[in-house]
Design brief:
- Helix 8 runs antiparallel to helix 9 and helix 9 runs antiparallel to helix 11.
- Strand 2 and strand 3 form a beta hairpin.
- A three-stranded antiparallel β-sheet has the order 1-2-3, with helices on one face.
- The longest helix has 22 residues.
- By secondary structure, the chain is mainly α.
- It has 16 helices and eight strands.
- The protein has three domains: 63 residues, no CATH class; 130 residues, DNA polymerase, domain 1; 189 residues, Intergrase catalytic core (hpI Integrase, Chain A, Orthogonal Bundle).
- The radius of gyration is 29 Å and the shape is elongated.
Length: 397
């Protein structure tokens, strides 16, 4: 809504209104008095009336305004995009994007909001910020996407990462098109094809090799990782309040993402994981180490949760290199748990619950080639499988 406002620093009055999708602030030398307020409000009513009738000439009221250049630039952009003047009455991308972010942040996790903020600042606003949302073309979007695929500083963004950058652009422009009555430029633009996630679990022999060769104070951490199917964010954010030794269950209720405690990835991810023997014993040993000094199960000497990047670069990859094992992402510990459960003959429905899947469909889609048979349903087969090799755990414990 248009208004007459006061500059807090100078005490001078200024106009604050919207025209052709741009927020306009035109400052005056008038001091904040009742009479000056009335004069400017009267003038503002004339401006609003002319804008409504389509007869407003910005240069007539503000001949020396810097906004004139912006309007001329926008007019040129839209003309090159083949748009009619009636289609030009929409905000700049950077302004609409901020409004869109503000409206949606209430329903997002803090970590997701931070991710979207980074994409806006590092990619989208830099490219489209000064263009009106209605003037962005399909060709410009495709050109931008292609630029993301180029090698920069020896690195190339993956198709999956490019899709994650393009997705908020799609959401913003689709929303803008709906609100400002223009056709979204995303019609016919499909996401890039992404290769299926590589499932590369560790054989049980290699699992014990890793456990036996990480630094001693990380052994229990990796026992729990390999034999519980927990995600990195789940185990790094695990608190003692969610470890139930009486029921031999780990309750997944929170995650640690970018140093922030969040709710679980999905509603189905909130679950109770049955502790196998090695996991239960590992957690009991860990409790003796950290139970009295931190709310987190696995933590630093200061009681703070592990830093994922630090543990990965200083513990995980050096251990694999030392053992001459193929480099794999730490997430493969989750895949390893699933395939070991399947290999031991556990019931797929029980496994799906342990993993936080809402059905067995994903289980069969991802791990189909690791399914030998399905007979048991209570975790005892898995217990027998890993217990048979438990003697491999070094005596240092």
């Amino acid at each position: 809504m248009a208004s007459v406002r006061t500059n807090k620093e100078t005490g001078r009055l200024f106009f604050d209104f919207w025209y052709k999708g741009l927020r306009c602030r035109e400052f005056t030398k008038l001091t904040d008095t009742a009479e000056n307020q009335r004069k400017m409000e009267k003038m503002l009513k004339h401006i609003e009336a002319e804008i409504t009738l389509g007869s407003f000439e910005y240069s007539k009221y503000f001949p020396n305004s810097k906004m004139l250049q912006k309007f001329e630039s926008t007019k040129t952009d839209c003309a090159s995009a083949g748009l009619e003047p009636s289609e030009n009455d929409a905000p700049l991308f950077k302004e609409f994007a901020e409004e869109w972010l503000f409206e949606n942040v209430v329903r997002w996790k803090r970590s997701y909001t931070a991710n979207i903020r980074g994409i806006l600042d590092n990619y989208l606003v830099k490219t489209f910020g000064e263009k009106k949302v209605s003037c962005i073309t399909k060709g410009e979007i495709l050109k931008f996407r292609s630029s993301l695929a180029k090698v920069t500083n020896g690195k190339r963004l993956s198709p999956d990462r490019i899709n994650h950058i393009i997705t908020p652009l799609r959401m913003i422009l689709n929303d803008a098109a709906d609100r400002h009555h223009f056709t979204t430029p995303f019609l016919g633009i499909k996401q890039l094809t992404v290769a299926d996630s590589q499932v590369d679990p560790f054989p049980l022999k290699e699992v014990w090799q890793v456990i036996n060769n990480v630094p001693k104070h990380f052994m229990d951490y990796y026992i729990v990782r390999f034999f519980s199917g927990m995600r990195t964010s789940e185990i790094d954010g695990l608190k003692w309040t969610y470890v139930d030794f009486d029921r031999r269950e780990i309750l997944i209720r929170e995650t640690l993402v970018r140093g922030l405690i969040e709710s679980t990835k999905t509603v189905g991810s909130a679950r109770a994981i049955a502790m196998s023997g090695p996991v239960c014993e590992a957690l009991k040993r860990q409790y003796r180490k950290t139970g009295a000094k931190s709310e987190y199960v696995f933590c630093t000497a200061k009681g703070t949760p592990f830093n994922y990047s630090n543990v990965t670069s200083r513990i995980w990859y050096p251990t694999l290199k030392k053992l001459k094992l193929k480099p794999r992402r730490p997430y493969q510990t989750r895949h390893t748990a699933a395939t070991l459960w399947l290999a031991s003959g556990e019931n797929p429905e029980w496994i799906a619950k342990q993993m936080g899947h809402t059905s067995t469909k994903m289980l069969f889609t991802i791990y189909s080639r690791f399914v030998p048979n399905m007979t048991r349903m209570d975790g005892t087969a898995f217990e027998s499988l890993i217990s048979a090799d438990a003697f491999l755990l070094r005596e240092a414990l």
